[in-house]
Amino acid sequence: MELDEFLCLSFPLLTKGFLRRQVRDGKILVDGQRTIPSQRLRWSQVILIDFDEDEVVPEAPVAPSFSIPVLYEDEHVLAVDKPADLAAEPERWARGNASLSGALLSLALERADAEPDSPLTPTEGLDFRPRLVHRLDKDTTGVVLVAKTLEAERELRAAFENGTVHKHYLALVEGEYPLADGESEIIDLPIGPDEKKSGRMRVDRADGKPSQTRVSIEQRFNGYTLVRCEPLTGRTHQIRVHMREVGFPLVVDPVYGRHKSLSLSEFKPGYRKKRGHQELPLITRLTLHARRIEFPRVGTHESVVVESPLPKDFERVLKQMAKVRAR
């Protein structure tokens, strides 16, 4: 095992970047000698660690108050079901908020029955340190792949780059998408950052990176469409940007669409709310769900398929659409 990997298992509340800096600064020695973070360890070697008592350490990611469902697991990989309103990594300006990485670290510590009192206290028995190999937007739900080892992370990242990982999303969009049943088309529009609006992306035909999304029909409604989207590239906000550019934005998307939420009154003809009752929205986040992922099993040529069930809010919207906007 490489030194930095061993340190990550021993000090799970410290970031890998912080630990690597300690090695380079000579605060972590192997057999009394300065070394590099990638040095491979051998049995019987002695690691000397000298953290300062007043060391400024990065905050560990915070776990949510609820557990994250595990959809699939083997010795190399976890696949979990990410809920809405949970960022993949600690947010830059709100590091104290819960994140998916915090939930995964909590899971690993729980399985090892470890509760370190301090980030600088070594932990014994940690079998793995979870590593996200891809991300979903904070308000997107669905399946996320997590590597349990460095080898698995490297192999899965290579699979993403080689196009042997296939992700399938369901997106509820405005308008009736003009495709026949069984047909599909590829939206091929380059994407780059929107220089006028920080954190946003846009179609940039001059300088954007190549981006392709395969689209087909899942279910039709009057005025709306549930589409299947398979991103063939991995650009930030790719599906949201592509669907907006071709004139079919997500029904709920406060950044690239028109609405922050969706209520029954917005699509049910003749809707009348009950006297004295306030209408509550059916859904208050992106109408986008990562339903399925197919990836090569680590160390083999077999394929693994993992699916995530529709969340209750998304399912509620589709049920109402089928009642009052059926085709």
Say what the CATH topology of the largest domain is. Answer: Pseudouridine synthase
**CATH class identity of the largest domain:** Alpha Beta
Shape verdict = elongated
Fourth-tier CATH superfamily name of the largest domain: Pseudouridine synthase
In short:
The chain has 6 helices and 14 strands. The chain has helices at residues 3-10, 16-24, 100-111, 150-162, 238-245, 312-324, and strands at 28-30, 47-49, 70-73, 77-82, 131-132, 141-147, 166-174, 184-188, 191-193, 201-203, 212-221, 224-231, 288-296, 303-307.
Can you lay out the helices and strands and say which pair or pack?
Elements: H1 3-10, H2 16-24, E1 28-30, E2 47-49, E3 70-73, E4 77-82, H3 100-111, E5 131-132, E6 141-147, H4 150-162, E7 166-174, E8 184-188, E9 191-193, E10 201-203, E11 212-221, E12 224-231, H5 238-245, E13 288-296, E14 303-307, H6 312-324
Parallel strand pairs: 6-13
Antiparallel strand pairs: 1-2, 3-4, 4-6, 5-6, 7-12, 7-13, 8-11, 9-10, 11-12, 13-14
Helix pairs in contact: 1-2
Describe the protein in words.
The protein is of the alpha+beta class and 327 residues long. The chain has 3 domains: 1-58, Structural Genomics Hypothetical 15.5 Kd Protein In mrcA-pckA Intergenic Region, Chain A, CATH 3.10.290; 61-162, Pseudouridine synthase; 163-324, Pseudouridine synthase, CATH 3.30.2350. Helix content is 19%, strand content 24%. It contains 6 helices and 14 strands. Strands 3, 4, 5, 6, 7, 8, 11, 12, 13 and 14 form a 10-stranded mixed β-sheet that branches. Strands 1-2 form a two-stranded antiparallel ribbon.
